[in-house]
Amino acid sequence: MPGCVLVTGGAGFIGSHIVDQLVESGREVRLLDCLHPAAHDGSPDYLNRAAELRIGDLNDADAVAAALEGVDAVCHQAAMVGLGTDFAEVPDYATANDLGTARLLSALAKRRFRGPLVLASSMVVYGEGGYECRQHGPVRPPPRARADLKAGRFEPPCPRCGDPLEPRPVPEEAPLDPRSVYAATKLHQEHLCGLFAREQEGVRFTALRYHNVYGPRMPRDTPYAGVASIFRSAIAAGHAPAVFEDGGQLRDFVHVADVARANLIALDPDAGAEGAFNIATGKPRSIETMAELLAQAAGPGAPAPRVTGEFRLGDVRHVFADASKAEAQLGFKAAVDLETGMREFAGAELR
Question: Of the N and C termini of the chain, which has fewer Cβ atoms inside 10 Å?
Answer without folding.
Answer: N
